[in-house]
Amino acid sequence: MASRRFPDSGSRYILRPNGDQASNGLIVYYLDGAGQSRAPVFAERGTDDPDDDDALVNSQTRLDAYGGQLDFRGPRDDTDALYASVDGGPIFRVLAAPEPRLQALEQIVGTGTVGTVTIPSSFAGGEDEGQPGQFDSTGRLNLESYQRADYNSYGEVLRIYSRRADSKQMIAWYGPRSFDPTTREPIGSNKPWFWMGAHYEANDHGSIHGHWSCEIPDTTGALQTRLELPIWDPVTGVYGMDKGVIKTNAADLNVRTSNGQELRLSSPAGNEKPITFSNDSDGRDAYRRWKLRATNESESGGNAGTNFQLVRYDDAGVLIDTPVVVSRSTGNITLGPGFVARRSSSSVSSLTLNTTSLGGGVGVVGVGNATTPPASNPTGGGVLYAEGGALKWRGSSGTVTTIAAA
């Protein structure tokens, strides 16, 4: 048996119930969460077998000016968790420094032996409401970093390695399908709730997934990918992508807007902001069919530039034209070449067909001379057009009537 060094870094600094640092507070250590039995603790002298003369009087000492505990030694029976109270406040748990536990972990997994390490938790500390008698009874793994990652990946506190093409490197959340509504205790066995991780080969070995993914169960309990980010290019199979493609599967994107949230496409003026409708999930241009976009036209003042368009593409993904264009500066809507709904004011618009001249009119319809007047008879109706400045109608029998002279 040995005396372990306390505290671990995650429980060194203490806050008072109001959130202030417990600067220079008087801390008392206990063996139990109820604070009934004081713990035999000792001043830190660098030995696992402290001398009786180093015992802390009444199991208490002062915190430093920042509310931090000084290093000390716990009981001589390998105890690695104690309880404490500052200035008579709520009781909380204090853990031993992690080195002995890491050494035990190394003995399990460092030699290649398959092992499972469990960090226990309990509800012994009650709810986290800042009330007397409540304390932290949640086990946790605290990882610290002081370095940025650059050339040699310093600062990485957790690494997960793949050792086979079909291996999975997943972080998993498990729990029951339901809980007792009164006791809040789990009902039934643990089931997977959520998977997050990366893998290379598909489970059936028939294809390459090569992605990071998030998975949740379907109604049968089978995990299904809902969000993925390819690591290998799904088209070329090459490792790494200059532009990632975030994909969803059997999942809708719902942006809650009750508090003013927005779905936003953003970049500086002069850059296109598009939404593309495609027949392909890998982002290949050949499968583009429609695009809604704020254009890449520069902004030169007076609300000019960054206009709005509906764009269509052919079966090879090549641009055909822009059947709908909205000018940001004027509000005019162009439906194909020549047909424009012209906004005159907040309540008045004009329509023009093949002309830009309205003769100074507002709230009017302007019809330009037909580029090619109808030469054959229409069926099931007639054709209205202008010719030489006159408004004409050609009916289905071929009769051309001048409605208004030039």
Describe the secondary structure blueprint for this structure.
Blueprint: E1 5-6, E2 26-30, E3 42-43, E4 60-62, E5 72-73, E6 81-86, E7 91-95, H1 99-109, E8 168-175, E9 178-179, E10 186-187, E11 191-201, E12 208-217, E13 223-230, E14 247-248, E15 273-278, E16 288-294, E17 308-313, E18 319-326, E19 333-335, E20 339-343, E21 349-353, E22 365-367, E23 383-387, E24 390-394, E25 400-404
Report on the structure:
The chain has four domains: 159 residues, no CATH class; 86 residues, no CATH class; 95 residues, no CATH class; 38 residues, no CATH class. The chain has an eight-stranded mixed β-sheet, with no helix packed on it. Strands 8-11-12-13-14 form a five-stranded antiparallel β-sheet, with no helix packed on it. Strands 4-2-6-7 form a four-stranded antiparallel β-sheet, with no helix packed on it. It is an all-beta fold. It is elongated, with a radius of gyration of 36 Å. The longest helix has 11 residues. 3% of the residues lie in helices and 31% in strands. Strand 18 and strand 19 form a beta hairpin.
Low-confidence stretches: none
Q: Between the first and last Cα atoms, what is the distance in angstroms?
A: 111 Å
Helicity, in percent?
under 10%
Structural class: mainly beta
How many structural domains are formed by the residues?
4
What is the mean predicted local confidence, pLDDT?
90
Order of helices and strands: EEEEEEEHEEEEEEEEEEEEEEEEEE
Number of helices: 1
Query: Roughly how many Å is the radius of gyration?
Result: 36 Å
Give me the side-by-side strand order of the main sheet: 15-16-17-18-19-20-21-22
Instruction: Please report the total strand number as a whole number.
Output: 25
Characterize the main sheet: 8 strands, mixed
What's the overall geometry? elongated
Strand content: 25-35%
